[in-house]
Here is the input.
Amino acid sequence: MYERFFGLRERPFELTPNPKYLYLSAHHREAVSNLKYGLLSSKSVTLLLGAAGTGKTTVLHTVLESSDCRHVRCVSVNNPALTRDEFIQVLAAGFELGDEARRSKAVLLEGLERGMRERRARGEITALVIDEAQALSRELLEEVRLLANIETSSEKLLPVVLAGQRELGERLEDPSLAQLKQRVALRCEILPFDLPDTAAYITARIAAADGTPGKLFTREAVMLIHEYSNGVPRTINVICDNALVTGMALRRQPVDRRTVLEVCGQFCLHPGEQSAPLSKERAQTITEPEPSHREAPEEAVAASGTRADLFEAVIKPRRFALFGYEPV
Here is the structure.
């Protein structure tokens, strides 16, 4: 829609992640390393936590599609709001154990263990990954614990990855789930982007679409995007995509702070809350930011270099003085 106006090859802020747009913060890279280690070392349970929209599913896909995990036979459960019988059916179908295993847990376990031992003898790993694991019932959490217990005399046969929102970690503090918590061998958490990461993320996505970041967003627009998205990548995508559409409609290039504020008002976003719904009256109170966020005078921009040069500084030497941060 806006590609020609902004000189882009394709839309960089689609909600469905594309490998060419992949940007990993330090927290994402740490999570990738933990998940790979947990799977390849056959750890009993690896826990991946993060707020909604921070990229847990993207990290899972990155790990499972990597060359390091080419020998991992993984069954993924993406909607774990299941009954016990439905969970058994999902596992039987995922591991291709036949109709009898769908009807009988005993047959499922026998076929599952036999298959895992055969694959392990060939140097392959069998794994179970459950996304949105905070939705698992207590009964299914117990089933997961028992599955993680399947082992030989020297190693676990079924490494399990539980990915979910932070309440999953809180649930594991329940004394009744102490046995499952004790089996958590690795635990990592993905945090929202800080301001430098938000700028680097936007820059990377635009660059992947052959765009010039400094010509698409002003620095003040980037600061507001971070402020109103709270650093959540999914919300950053929504704001940026709609800001570019609005900028095209209004013939504004680059997208400025006023455009970003209009988009945030339309989506009822405001600083300090992650996409919390607002009443119409509250949405109308979204106002201009404090004076420190106002557009810099052109002479100040000129003194600092072109906007494109400033965005180059975000990606290459990672200097963030532009955004009020000194290099660490």
About this structure: The longest helix spans residues 233-250. The chain has two domains: 26-190, 193-323. The domain at 26-190 is CATH 3.40.50.300 (Rossmann fold). Residues 169 and 290 are 37 Å apart (CA to CA).
